[in-house]
Amino acid sequence: MTENFIRLKQTFLNGIPNRLARINALTAACIGQGSAFQADNIDQLHRELHKLSGAAACYQCHEIGSAAEACESWLEAYMIHDTPLTEHTSLQFLEKLETLKQMCVAASA
């Protein structure tokens, strides 16, 4: 790895807390009564996860990329089917999001 790449990767890793804060805020805005997703911010949440997944791939942070992609894919399936979610189904997403957070913390350590 070149020195430039290492510096760029570190900048990416340093920015992860801000990315996670945006993802957390959007997730909170999307979840309504009974932990079912509300449509208002779901597109923004999907975009944030997509950007994180892509950036992680660019900087060879494969665990973060995979975890972000899992969250993104889950949201894509939700958006395609456009069906009401149960509390159990929403919790599945939150579990995927928790995995993403753990991967981010591990990579930043």
Q: Strand content of the residues, in percent?
A: under 5%
Task: Name the shape in a single word.
Answer: elongated
CATH superfamily: HPT domain
Let me know the number of strands: 0
Mean pLDDT: 87
The CATH architecture assignment turns out to be Up-down Bundle
The structural domain count equals 1
Low-confidence stretches are none
Might you state the CATH topology name? Four Helix Bundle (Hemerythrin (Met), subunit A)
Structural class category: mainly alpha
Rg is 14 Å
CATH class: Mainly Alpha
* Number of H- or I-type helical stretches: 4
Q: Roughly how much helix do the residues carry, as a percent range?
A: over 70%
Q: How far apart, in Å, are the first and last alpha carbons?
A: 19 Å
Biggest β-sheet strands, sense, barrel? none
Structure, explained:
- By secondary structure, the protein is mainly α.
- It has a single domain (3-29, 39-108), classed as HPT domain (Four Helix Bundle (Hemerythrin (Met), subunit A)).
- It has four helices and no strands.
- The longest helix is centred in the N-terminal third of the chain and has 28 residues, at 3-30.
- The mean pLDDT is 87.
Summarize this structure as a short list of keywords or feature phrases:
109 residues; mainly alpha; Four Helix Bundle (Hemerythrin (Met), subunit A)
Outline:
With 109 residues, the chain is mainly α.
